[in-house]
Design brief:
CAMK family protein kinase, kinase, Phosphorylase Kinase, domain 1, ULK4, five-stranded antiparallel beta sheet, Transferase(Phosphotransferase), domain 1, transferase
Length: 1054
């Protein structure tokens, strides 16, 4: 991220406020020196991880229906994203104003979205975040996808942390319940939800609470939109199918009649071909025999083709990056800045601008100079000795300095005493600029020449003496250039093993003093860094040099360039060199400043110094700040430094582990070599954590739990050796101490990611977990059992083990905390599909178990599903004695579970009818029975109101009418309150063929009851609303319903 190249104007939009970060603001802006307007979106820097994900994906996308990404910048605590300017607002803005859109508009907008999605899917990207705020319009009304923070590259998993309700509302069941990785079907499901919202103004499963929302997504279907066409309703229904495999493919989607050939009219019509295919495969655990040699390979090499299958087989082919992987310490110590730099004419030290010259007017050519012959050198020296400074000396020196940057020219000028000649001319010159230029020419030759026979140079003492005199010049311009020349000479000697007089070394040391000229000190620092990075740093007194460097206060340096040079010199000096104890305090102050207060280069050098000098601990606060707030190289270096620092302090590492693993996951794309080194280091670290946990040190397992949250990290960590260690711990664990639940959390995460198979640990899992005194252990154990029993083909041996263990603890678990009890119900619900008889047998062993089950009705989603088959196994007398009727009635009042509640009521009413039928000759017992269930009569109005929606509700109403038809000698009709709601249902449904059977069933029972009971007949005759509805149905009802109604009316009127 560099300096911003945009000019910002007024604010044009804001994101939603959040308690966790500053509100996002969008400004209108313009690119500098252009007339192109852009949008500048400013985001809180705490969201750097998700913004990095968006940039990583979006900068490679180029499509008319996707907002173009241009650049990004970090300014203090904000990140600026420079994006395509779209002044048309968002779909959210349009819906806020218009509530819902006509189908013609939906078709246009949705075709734009479809075009963008198809492009993304062809490129292996899934958008996932279909909040209408993320679809914006340009000035031409073209819809474009924006905000790729939650977009996912194929093979990766959704980030489900801190999700908004708007994001959750469009997630399908497979993401919410099974944490599956997104695919084409995921986006098409969300696309269906978007279509529904454009048509209705809200998503199909909107809910106030997350639990309610998730329940609707799992259990309710999308409602038919009466004011929309059958084609749009059908498309939405197919896109939002609960089963991903039933959703349309791209070819089926584009061919759907809703579109009315709109794609054929688009300019990009040809793009709507060669559709990507859907992959519904789920990663599967594969257990196989592994030889010792294979195991060694597995422990050090990455698995191949991890995106498609998770196996424990060794691969014979590995990536080139993995063939040689550094340790993370070596990576931290390796720094691109740690290399020799040019000293002479270094623009970072001082600006030197040479005038242009005409080469054709020079007395020699560069080609002639390259030969280095004496005649050419003499010609040059003769003109440089001329008294005509302006016309002869100055242009030639400039020509030579420019030419000497070429190594061959510099080598030619280094022969025949030319070096001593130009320095002698510099000493004699009365012109400051000429003397300085001679020094520059000398330094450029020394710096650029590929070969200098320095020991055989004539008059070396002249060179040394001249340089000493020039370095003591009272003129700053001459002095500075002389120090730069000495610096170049010092670098040359250190690289080639030549000695250099102490007086020139003293000139460098004097220049290092805090009181010296800033530019001279800067040249000296460059020289020191070069010498320390050379083959012969010993040409300097290293003790004196250490003392000199540690007297330089980094905060007192005049500019950032000089700070970089100081940090480079210190870093180069202490490379592979232990500091004196007296230097430690200075180095600690220096590194703390370099890491956080200056630029990226100095931060990297500061971390290298801290690592080399073993003082990382003194900078842990600064390293943490750098890791949290920086990007790029500084971020991964600070991450590695913290890993090294906390290697032996697991609790401290735990405090940053989640962020470390999140960033490491991104490094595999941006810095694969760093990622490889880190993941190898961490795999070793995992072994230490597991070893510690086997001795009761559980809390550190939280680190492993955090690392498994990223799919790609998890696949590298979860090796056979790791799996075996974890299973050994499980076998021997008693689960009586806090923290032991983390063992199960690791297993859970591995099962969710498909790295292992939950059914393979059932035996060991159930030994000590269900009766553990730790709530989280019991909860996680049941979650694992939920996953193990979700497979209908689970091994019967494993199923028997589960049944046996549950039988010991079921009563305790059903009276446990609500979350544990709910999880227990999920296990039972899964087991019902595997072996219903065995589940019913398990639950019906004790009345206390039955009461516990029924007491959860209305509290736990799956309780009604469990109770319904169980009810069939309980005798009528037992149901009455256990007082279960209030619970059955309570379930009907739970609107979220109404369908299951009706099934439960239906089962119970069948039991009542069967009991009455069995005692039909015992009037006394029948009266007693009806009295015991009398409260159920209050359910009749509810059932009547639901007749059209749930066919079984009609069965329930029929049975309630039958049961509560007054017996001989009775006159009170207790279900009279159902007449009016049923009349409403009859008026609404008599013309609908799909409702005819339900209505006919109830009317037939009314006819029968009226025929057998005068009290019933009288009440029906007096119900004007019901009689009116019956007359209407008799005249206009569909099919057999008309005849049935006519017959009922004849009986009632008789």
């Amino acid at each position: 991220m560099s300096e911003m190249q945009i000019k910002i104007y007024g604010e044009i939009g804001k994101g939603r406020p959040s308690p966790n970060f500053a509100q996002t603001v969008v400004y209108k802006a313009r690119k500098n020196n252009t007339v192109e307007f852009v949008a500048a979106k400013t985001v809180d820097a705490v969201r750097l991880e998700e913004i990095s994900n968006a940039v990583h994906i979006q900068h490679n996308l180029h499509h008319e229906n996707i907002v173009q990404f241009y650049n990004w910048y970090q300014v203090e605590n904000s990140i600026f994203l420079v994006l395509e300017y779209c002044p048309g607002g968002s779909l959210s803005d349009i819906l806020e104003r218009d509530v819902r859109l006509p189908e013609s508009v939906i078709r246009i907008f949705a075709s734009d979205v479809a075009a963008a999605l198809l492009y993304l899917h062809k490129n292996g990207v899934y958008f996932t975040n279909f909040d209408t705020r993320n679809f914006i319009l340009d000035e031409n009304g073209i819809v474009k996808l924006s905000d790729f923070c939650r977009a996912v590259i194929d093979g990766n998993y959704c980030n489900l942390t801190d999700i908004d309700p708007e994001y959750l509302e469009v997630l399908p069941v497979e993401i919410i319940d099974f944490s599956s990785k997104p695919n084409i079907a995921t986006d098409l499901y969300a696309f269906g939800c978007l279509l529904y919202k454009l048509a209705c103004g809200q998503t199909p499963f909107a809910g106030e609470a997350q639990e309610e929302l998730e329940y609707k997504i799992r259990n309710t279907s999308v409602e038919y939109i009466p004011y929309c066409s059958p084609e749009l309703n059908d498309l939405i229904k197919r896109l939002t199918d609960k089963k991903a495999i039933n959703r349309p493919t791209w070819s089926e989607l584009i061919a759907h009649p809703f579109w009315k050939n709109i794609f054929a009219s688009r300019d990009d019509y040809e793009d709507f071909s060669n559709f990507p295919t859907m992959d519904f495969s789920i990663p599967a655990y594969e257990s196989s025999e592994i030889t010792e040699n294979e195991e060694d390979i597995l422990d050090i090499e990455p698995k191949e083709n991890l995106a498609n299958s998770i196996t424990f087989r060794a691969s014979s082919v590995f990536s080139s990056i993995s063939e040689k992987v550094d340790t993370i310490r070596n990576l931290l110590l390796r720094c691109n800045q740690l290399k020799q730099q040019s000293v002479v004419m270094n623009q970072a030290v001082e600006a030197i601008n040479l005038p242009s010259v005409n080469a054709s007017q020079m007395p020699v050519t560069l080609e002639a100079i390259k030969t280095g012959n004496q005649e050419t050198i003499d010609t040059i020296v003769k003109q440089l000795s001329s008294k005509d400074v302006v016309k002869r000396q100055s242009p030639l020196i400039t020509f030579l300095i420019t030419g000497a940057k070429n190594p061959d020219v510099a080598t030619g000028l280094s022969t025949n005493g030319f070096l001593s000649s130009i320095l002698n001319l510099a000493v004699k010159s009365k012109h400051v600029s000429i003397a300085a230029a001679h020094c520059i020419l000398f330094g450029t030759i020394i710096q650029s020449a590929t070969k200098i026979d320095f020991e055989n140079q004539v008059n070396n003492e002249i060179i040394y003496g001249a340089l000493e005199k020039l370095s003591n010049s009272p003129k700053d311009k001459v002095k500075r250039k002389a120090i730069s020349a000495i610096s170049a000479l010092l670098t040359f000697c250190a690289n080639n093993g030549y000695q250099i007089p102490q007086k020139l070394i003293d000139a460098i040391f004097n220049s290092l003093k805090p009181s010296s000229d800033d530019v001279c000190r800067h040249y000296a620092l460059k020289a020191v860094a070069n010498v320390c990075l050379s083959l012969h740093p010993e040409i300097l007194d290293l003790n004196l040099l250490e003392n000199a460097l540690t007297k330089l206060d980094v905060t007192a340096q005049p500019n950032n360039a000089m700070v970089e040079s100081l940090s480079l010199a210190v870093c180069a000096f202490f490379k592979d060199r232990k500091p004196q104890s007296s230097s430690n305090e200075y180095l600690q102050r220096l590194t703390k400043t370099l890491i956080v207060k200056l630029g990226a280069t100095t931060a990297s050098l500061g971390m290298v110094i801290a690592c080399e000098c073993d003082i990382l601990n003194s900078s842990k606060e600064e390293l943490t700040i750098a890791f949290n707030k920086s990007v790029g190289e500084v971020k991964w270096r600070s991450m590695i430094a913290l890993c090294l620092l906390y290697r032996n302090s697991m609790p401290n590492f735990m405090s940053i582990s989640e962020r470390v693993f999140s960033h490491a996951d991104k490094l595999q794309y941006d810095e694969p070599q760093v990622y490889e080194a880190f993941i190898r280091w961490y795999c070793d670290y995992c072994d230490e954590i597991l070893d510690a946990s086997s001795k009761g040190q559980y809390l550190n397992l939280r680190i492993i739990v955090d690392s498994l949250k990223q799919k790609n990290n998890a696949m590298r960590i979860y090796r056979p050796k790791f799996d075996r260690k974890l299973r050994d711990i499980l076998k021997n664990e008693q689960f009586i101490l806090g923290g032991s639940e983390l063992i199960l959390e690791i297993f859970l995460q591995s099962f969710i990611l498909g790295l292992s198979d939950s059914t393979t640990i059932v035996n060991d899992l159930l030994l000590n977990t269900l009766q553990s005194p730790i709530k989280d252990v019991r909860y996680d154990s049941l979650r694992i059992l939920t996953m193990a029993t979700s497979d209908l083909n689970v091994d019967s041996t494993e199923t028997n083990v589960i049944f046996n263990q549950l039988s010991k603890h079921i009563e305790f678990l059903l009276n446990d905390d609500l979350v544990i009890c709910e999880c227990c119900f999920k296990v039972l619900d899964n087991l019902l599909l595997i072996d219903e008889c065995q589940v019913v047998g398990l639950l019906s062993t004790k009345n206390t178990i039955i009461q516990s089950l029924f007491s959860k009705i209305g509290t736990i989603n799956t309780s009604i599903k469990i109770c319904e088959p169980l009810l069939s196994s309980i005798s009528f007398e037992n149901i009455i004695s256990l007082n279960l009727i209030p619970q059955i009635m309570k379930s009907i009042d739970q609107s979220d579970f109404i369908k299951d509640s009706i099934d439960l009521l239906y089962t119970f009413l069948l039991i009542v009818e069967d009991y009455i039928e069995a005692n039909k000759n015992n009037q006394k017992e029948i009266k007693k029975t009806i009295k015991s269930v009398n409260s159920l009569s209050t359910m009749a109005p509810k059932c009547a109101s639901l007749v059209l929606k749930y066919p079984k509700s009609a069965d329930c109403l029929k049975m309630l009418i039958n049961i509560f038809t007054p017996l001989p000698g009775q006159t009170d009709v207790v279900i009279e309150s159902a007449f009016q709601p049923f009349a409403t249902a009859l008026m609404n449904g008599h013309c609908k063929p799909e409702c005819a059977n339900s209505l006919k069933l109830v009317i037939e029972q009314l006819k029968k009851s009226a025929f057998n009971c005068n009290s019933m007949k009288l009440k029906l005759k007096c119900s004007s609303k019901l009689m009116s509805a019956l007359r209407t149905a008799a005249q206009n009802g569909v099919g057999e319903l008309r005849k049935t109604t006519e017959g009922a009316l004849n009986v009632i009127r008789s």
